[in-house]
Every structure is written in structure tokens, then in C-alpha cells.
Amino acid sequence: MSTKSRKDSYLSELNLKETNPLLVSLSHLATRENIPIIQPEGLAFLRQIIRLKAIRTILEIGTAIGYSTIAMASVHPAIRIDSIERNQTLYEKAKAHISDSPYAKQIQLYCADALDFAVAGERTYDLIFIDAAKAQNQKLFEKYEKHLRNDGVMIVDNLLFHDLVHDRPDSRNLRALVRKIDAFNRYLIAREDFDTTIYPIGDGMSLSIKR
Fold it and tell me: What is the distance between the alpha carbons of residues 63 and 185, in angstroms, rounded to a whole number?
């Protein structure tokens, strides 16, 4: 076993496991139906940022089945989340899961393409979490950054893309996507109006704090 595998195995054994029955059930559902959701380490990181920064307003781009949405809402009862999902089937699943959860009043769900969606008025958020189409990361970042308050946090998931960003995939289509993700990563780091670090957590997560 490699050093990295031993480290991952050790931390997996050491860190607390999810105990919320609804989140456990949704995680199993995502596995059965092959629906991508945030990895456990990434979700733990996201929740800790919400706690540390006392986040109360969140915009989520990419609801999927509502797993991360419900997890974020569960951190504090004062949290309010607007979440956007463009896939009608996933939207309906998320809507059902959220409606049946104790956090339904904290979450407003929208079925829309985030590139076309209009945030009401001049509303701003404490946290914007992007977990959507990877090729659109930069467009989404630039569209929604004006809705992030100063000192707010923008988090983007899947920036290592199964470790393919620093390798060379065999597939031409994958190579094209990886180049876009790599370009976005470099774009993030170069932005002087955000303090950004990309962490090897889950599938790679960026944390950008707006200056």
C-alpha cells in the first residue's frame, strides 16, 4: 500500500462518520444510482467553513439530489439556502428529499440553468458553492461573484477531477475538459481580488475569500 493510501485509510478510520440518517440514506442512493455527490471529506470541509465563518446565506449551484444542500442547512437553523439544479429529474428528486427533511423551510430550490438564472435584486450571499458542469466553472464564477459579499467565500468542487488534472488522460474529450479545469484553477489563483487556495480535499476544492 502506498503512503497516500495508508494516510487516506488512517484518516478514514479516524474521522467521525456521518450519523444523520437522511444524509446516510441519500449517500447510499447516490451510490446505487451512480449520481455524483460531494465526497465525505469535501462535505466535512464545507461544513467546517460554514461554522468557522458563521455562514447564514448560501447560494448553491448544482443541487443534484439535495445531499449537500441538506447537509449545509443542518449546520444551523438560521441558514438560508438558494439552490439551482438544471436537470429536471434531479430537481424532482431533490425537491422530494428536501420537502421530507426537517430543513425544508431553510431551502429554496430552483430548476434552471445557472448561466441563465437571475438572482433577485441586489441580493448577496455569505457563501457561494459551485458544484456544476466543470467546463462552465469560470463563467459561473464570473456571473455570480457580484452576489458574494465582501469577505464572503466562494467554494468550487472537483478541481482535481479524479487526479486527472495533473495526469494526461487517454481520451481526447477528457483531455479537453482537464485543460479547461486546469485553466480555471490557474485563473482562480491569479485573481488578485480573491484570496484563493486549492486544497487536495475530496476531489479537490478551492476556497476563495472575496477581498
Answer: 22
Q: E strand or H helix at 200, and its extent?
A: none
Give the model confidence (pLDDT) of 119-177 as tens digits. 988 899 999 999 998 899 999 999 999 999 999 999 999 999 877 777 677 677 788 88
Q: Number of structural domains, the chain?
A: 1
Grid coordinates given for 143: 456571473
- Mean pLDDT, the chain, integer: 93
Q: Which helix (H) or strand (E) holds 88?
A: helix 88-99
Say which CATH number the domain at 40 has.
3.40.50.150
Range of the domain at 114: 3-210
Pairing of strands 194-199, 57-61: unpaired
* Contact assessment for residue 184 and residue 130, using Cβ atoms and an 8 Å cutoff: no
Distance CA 93, CA 141 (A): 26
For residue 49, give the amino acid letter. I
Of 184, 189, 195, 200, nearest to 141 by C-alpha is 184
Three-state SS letters, 98-133: HHCCCCHHHEEEEECCCCCCCCCCCCCEEEEEECCC
